[in-house]
Structure formats: C-alpha cells, structure tokens
Design a protein that fits this description.
By secondary structure, this protein is of the alpha+beta class. It has helices spanning about 40-45, 75-85, 105-115, 150-160, 200-210, 220-235, 295-310, and strands spanning about 5, 15-20, 35, 55-60, 60-65, 90, 135-145, 170-175, 185-190, 210-215, 215-220, 240-250, 255-260, 270-275, 280-290. It has a single domain, classed as Nonribosomal peptide synthetase, condensation domain (Chloramphenicol Acetyltransferase, 2-Layer Sandwich), CATH 3.30.559. Strands 6, 7, 8, 9, 10, 12, 14 and 15 form an 8-stranded mixed beta sheet that branches. Helix 3 (about 105-115) runs parallel beside helix 6 (about 220-235), helix 4 (about 150-160) packs across helix 5 (about 200-210) and helix 4 packs across helix 7 (about 295-310).
Length: about 300
C-alpha cells in the first residue's frame, strides 16, 4: 500500500527487499530479529510480514528488510543512514523524466498477454516445485566497478548457456530522480527482450532507449481485481527471465561490505542484485526455494561471474 494508491502485484510472494551491511563491529541498536548468521537472518526477513521495515542483527551484519511498496533499493541506503551508519550514498543517476511506454492498465494488459502467449524464457530449475518455503540467496564478489550493461550481457550469455535460449527477458530496476529525504518507492522498470541476441553495445543502447514501466500501483478497485486475478492464474508464467537491480557505486565509510537482494517474482524467475563498494562489486542471486537450492543457484552465479571476469 502506498499513499498514491494500491499496490497491485503477484499476491503469492512477500515483496521484501534486503540490504546487508557488514560493520566493523556488532551494531548496538534495537533489532526486530536476531540470528546466528546473516544467511539465517536473511531467510527470516524475506518472509511476508506486515511491518513496512524490519531490522535484523547477526554478529557484525545488519540486515534491513522492507516491503517494496514502501521503499526502493536506494531507499534502503537512506534507512541505513537513519540507523546511524551514514553517510551511505550512491552515484547512480536514475532515469529522470523518461516517459512510460504504457499507462497502468496498458502495462498490466501487456504483461498478462506476454505471460499467456509469449512466455519469457526460464532457466530450468533443479527442483520441481518442492514444498519449500522462502527464498534461496547466494552471493559473490568481483573486483572493481561493474556497469549494469556488463552485468546484463554476462547474465544473458550465462542463462542462455544454462537452457534459457529464446526470449530471454531482463527487467532492470531503475529509479526516478530522488526528491527529498522521505522514504518511498520511486522505482521503475526498464524491460529488455530477446537479450540473448544483443551484444554489449546493443544492451547499452537498449538501456538508454527503453521506456519505463510503472510500479504496480492503481487507484481503480475494479482494475485491481482483474489484475490480481490474472496474476494469480498466470503467476508461474509472469515476470522476466531475470531481474537486475544495481545500486551503483556506494560510498559508506562506516560500512565494510554491502550486499543487496532485490525481490524475485514470477515462475522460476531469479533476481540479481549488485552494489559497488570499497573497490569491489558484490553480486547476489535470489530465487524461490521451492525451485532452487543453494547448489543450483551457485552454478548460475558462477556462470554469470565467470563471464564478468573473463
């Protein structure tokens, strides 16, 4: 729910995004959740919860979990500052006033039609819908700064090699220019199709030219009901092959390491998060535990990272 309207999205997932900040020493702040390890804490904090924002502590790791209708990825850095670990700023520029390709109704209709008639490729998962709750998350580091286009290029080649050979669709998380310090979701999506056919220059061009897609917020109850019903029926076909969300190069002097886990949605869809900090880029993958175990997701991550460092 947002002040501007109703959040209308796949009702089968929790829509929580995570930021993990590793600090020089254990944080001395009140925590909503605690755990022995960051991995255990993250598994708890991605589960559906009514609270807009939750804070967890595991040793030196501080994990912020927020519902995506409340705050976007860069907004998680603002929460980190409010907790006393600022400054935490990103060099990401955003997409400014780039126009949307469709209004809310057009976007919903287009995505439902795509799911029904031109399903985006999915990476074949190692599991077959086993009854496992929550998400699987893995991460790795690469040296230096890595651009979004380079990540998409490497990921597109990796998922094609792993079996998603046609109609690879990549949703790219972006943001309008920041206005004020209040917490809210200012995110938009850029959607790239048939990524397996694009070289690096083509991906860079697509990122510059792709229209934005609006977040799933509406003021029409009737439209909401139709959209929610369609999303429920087509849940396993919705989404993209991969969602990529890069927080950019982050300056956070009080933090040793930062990792970002964006939301994952739609069928066997996988989300890739990236954040540059202190001369390295942390790459994460997140997917539904019912489809992906840690070993399977690590193989996907290795395929992406291997193409980034070639």
């Amino acid at each position: 729910m947002t002040a501007a309207g109703r959040w209308v999205a796949d009702p089968t997932i929790g829509w929580r995004i995570l930021l993990t900040a590793t600090l020089p020493e254990a944080p001395g702040i009140p925590a909503d959740r605690t755990a022995a390890t960051a991995a255990e804490l993250r598994r708890a904090l991605v589960m559906p919860a009514p609270e807009p924002v939750l804070v967890g502590v595991a040793g030196r790791d501080l994990v912020v979990s927020a519902h995506h209708s409340t705050v976007d990825g860069l907004g998680l850095l603002r929460i980190l500052e409010q907790l006393g670990y600022g400054p935490a700023t990103s060099a990401a520029r955003g997409v400014g006033d780039r126009p949307a390709g469709h209004g809310y109704v057009g976007t919903v209709a287009r995505r439902l039609a795509e799911a029904a008639f031109r399903r985006p490729a999915a990476i074949p998962p190692p599991r077959t819908g086993a009854p496992v709750a929550g998400d699987t998350m893995v991460e790795a580091e690469v040296p230096g700064s890595v651009r979004t286009a380079e990540i998409i290029h490497a990921a597109g080649r990796a998922v094609a090699a792993l079996g998603a050979r046609r109609h690879v669709a990549v949703a790219v998380g972006a943001r309008r220019a920041a206005v004020g310090d209040d917490l809210q979701d200012r995110s938009v999506l850029l959607r790239l199709r048939d990524v397996e056919l694009l070289d690096l220059a083509g991906i860079e061009r697509a990122l510059r030219e792709a229209p934005v897609e609006r977040p799933p917020v509406s003021r029409s109850g009737a439209v909401d009901r139709v959209a929610a019903a369609g999303m429920r029926v087509l849940a396993r076909r919705l989404g993209s092959t991969l969602l990529v969300s890069h927080l950019g190069e982050v300056t956070a002097p009080q933090v040793d390491r930062i990792a970002f886990h964006p939301v994952t949605a739609g069928g066997t869809g996988i989300s890739l998060g990236a954040v540059g900090h202190r001369g390295r880029t942390v790459i994460s993958l997140r997917a539904r535990a019912s489809d992906w175990d840690a070993d399977g997701l690590e193989r996907v991550l290795e395929a992406v990272v291997g193409r980034l460092v070639d």
